[in-house]
Amino acid sequence: xxxxxxxxxxxxxxxxxxxxxxxxxxxxxxxxxxxxxxxxxxxxxxxxxxxxxxxxxxxxxxxxxxxxxxxxxxxxxxxxxxxxxxxxxxxxxxxxxxxxxxxxxxxxxxxxxxxxxxxxxxxxxxxxxxxxxxxxxxxxxxxxxxxxxxxxxxxxxxxxxxxxxxxxxxxxxxxxxxxxxxxxxxxxxxxxxxxxxxxxxxxxxxxxxxxxxxxxxxxxxxxxxxxxxxxxxxxxxxxxxxxxxxxxxxxxxxxxxxxxxxxxxxxxxxxxxxxxxxxxxxxxxxxxxxxxxxxxxxxxxxxxxxxxxxxxxxxxxxxxxxxxxxxxxxxxxxxxxxxxxxxxxxxxxxxxxxxxxxxxxxxxxxxxxxxxxxxxxxxxxxxxxxxxxxxxxxxxxxxxxxxxxxxxxxxxxxxxxxxxxxxxxxxxxxxxxxxxxxxxxxxx
Length: 444
Known about the structure:
Layout: E1 2-5, E2 15-21, E3 26-31, E4 34-37, E5 51-55, E6 58-59, H1 67-76, E7 84-91, E8 101-105, E9 115-119, E10 126-132, E11 158-161, H2 181-187, H3 194-199, E12 202-212, E13 225-230, E14 233-237, H4 238-249, E15 259-266, H5 271-281, H6 298-303, E16 308-312, E17 324-326, E18 329-331, H7 345-354, E19 364-368, H8 377-383, H9 391-403, E20 409-412, H10 423-439
Parallel strand pairs: 11-12, 11-20, 12-15, 15-16, 16-17, 18-19, 19-20
Antiparallel strand pairs: 1-2, 2-3, 4-5, 5-6, 5-10, 7-10, 8-9, 12-13, 13-14
Helix pairs in contact: 7-9
């Protein structure tokens, strides 16, 4: 038989439910704009079971998709009183080749008057994988913050280390193997280990990279593979850094910690080498897993032990690697001269106000809390440390007022320098408590 049912709200579209009886089975098919399917194309009807979101029978790209979009889609699926979680799924093409995709764009009313844009594929985007069900409530603390289990990464703030590898293993070297004083002055960004940075509250690791070939390796310093750099200054291998991160994340006391890692700047003539080696390099991560979503729900990341989220510059991002995500970021970095005083909060606020991309949820926002020239990097870092971190809260408040989102990363040189009282960690914790109050109810 055919039964026409209407949603509770008058503006909901009519849904037709067809019941097909046969000798062998009873099959339920819902004819509606939105539906969920599993990885082999079967319909998903159960609450709290994730599925690939379809709009009028076509997969939805994650570009422009938001937490509010997920809640609205669940409402249309008849679960408007439940929570909603979503992640970016497999790259287009790895599930169903040559299937037409439509990207759904909506206004503030969410799905009212939506327009579907037909596309041949999702480009570099993933497809939306949606779960309609209760909010995540049992993950405990997230990076030491209570109540953040149901936030997405895009709704959270991490303290970051700029050019993490440039000094975390000791002095930098030139390609010749020497380490002149000027190299330390202008290109060394850190002077403590990655483990020490993490213990001080860093949860965002920025890395510049190059590649050392087998012919170039040897001696007591050069290892084959991807290496950490800053401009012409070389540090040690990426694998050394990843093993240190993996060891720290595997400790029981760090089980609820989530880390984001970015690889951006690189030696252009080594781009192909870097891209081809990335997947193999990350196999040393065994105590946690790489997260398949660029914007996971934090509680889900902890429950599934997918606590490392990796972003790669699209110049050397290896396509069709679902655990390595193309970098989409706005940064407040500008070449700046310093001699005696630190930034004002307004300098960073104005940059973000003038950049229209700040409003896009899928764009990460970084406040680059480091100067470029005028003094040695270490001396400039000391000027902007300690009590200067209090300005971060002003910046985050301003971004929320403008775009109803937080700053995702505050990045510094020389983590811990001039911060004997742990101001960096304390300020970020305060910011995240604000984030929980502002965004935590969205998933309930």
